[in-house]
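User: Show me a protein chain along with its predicted structure.
Assistant: Here is one chain, sequence first, then C-alpha cells.
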Amino acid sequence: MAATSTTAPVAIRSAGIDLLRVAGITAVVIGHVRSDDVTRAAVYTWHVPVFFLLTGYLWKPGRSLPVEWRRRWPTLGVPYLTWFLLLIAMLLAADAVTGRVASGTFVDAIYGGSAAMRPFSAFWFVSVLFLLAVAYRLLERLPVAVAWGIALIGLVVAYVSPEAVTAGPLGVFLVPACLVFVLTGRLLRQVRPRLSAGSGALLLVLGAALVVSGLSTPLDLKAGDFGRPGLGVLTAVLISAGLILLAEALDGRLRQRASAVIGALSACGIAVVLSHAAVLWVLGTPAQGGLFDFAAALLLPWGFALLALRTPFAPYLAGAPRMRRR
C-alpha cells in the first residue's frame, strides 16, 4: 500500500507585503527625522496603522495563547530587550563621559510606551504590536461584536482623553483603540477574494483625497492622537488597505533576486525600527532634520541589521533566524 503524505503545505511569503513593510519602516524613519505639516500629512496617517492592519490581515486563527506568545516573543520581545539593554549601555557610557543625559531618560525608557523618547522613540510601537497580538488572541474565541465593542470604546476614550490612553507602561492603554486596525485587517482578509488591484488603487485615492482636502488630520498614535474623530481612522484604513492590495498585486511581477533582497530587508525591519532613533540621538537631529540625518538613520541601521542577519546574533538583534548564504 502506498504511503499517504502528511506533509503540510508550505506558506509562500509575499514579496509585495515585504516591500510594503520596507516602505512603512522607511516612512517611520522619515516621520522621526521631520515633523513639519507636509511630512505628517504624507506619512503619519498610515505608517503605523498599516502594520496593525497587517497583523489582522495575516492573522492565523485557532492558535492557543501560549503558542501565540511563543511565536511573538522571539520576533518582538527578544529584539526589544536586546536593543533596550544596548541603548541603556550607550546612555550610561555617554552620561559617564558628558554628564548630559537627562535624569528622567532611564526611568522613562523602562516605563516605555509614550513616555520613552530618543533613543527609544519607536519602542512603543513594538510593545503595542506585541500586546495587540496577545489581546486579540484572547478575544478571538469571543463573538466578534465583543472585540469591536472593546475597540470602539477604546477609540472613544482616546478621542475624549488622549492623556489617559498614553499613560500606561509599554503603551498598554493604547491597545484597545489600536485594536480597530487589527479587526479591520481581519475584515479585509475576509472580503479579499472580491477585491482587485483596482480596488486598492481606489481605496488609496479616496484616502489621499481626505488628506489633501484637509477633512482628515494626521494620526499620531504614540501621543494618543487618532486624528479627526471618525475621519482619521477611516483615512488610515483606506490608505493602509489600498497599499496592502496594491502590494499583493506585485507578487509574481518581482524577479526572484529582487524578492530575495526585499525579503532580507523586511526580515531585519524590527532592528531598524528599534535602532534608528539612536542614530538621530547621536547626531542631535532637531525636529526638522535634513537629508543627511534621514540617510544616516535609515542606511546605518539597515546595513548593520543586514550584517547581523548573517551572524548568530540575528535572533537577538532582528528577531529573525540566521540567514545563511546559499
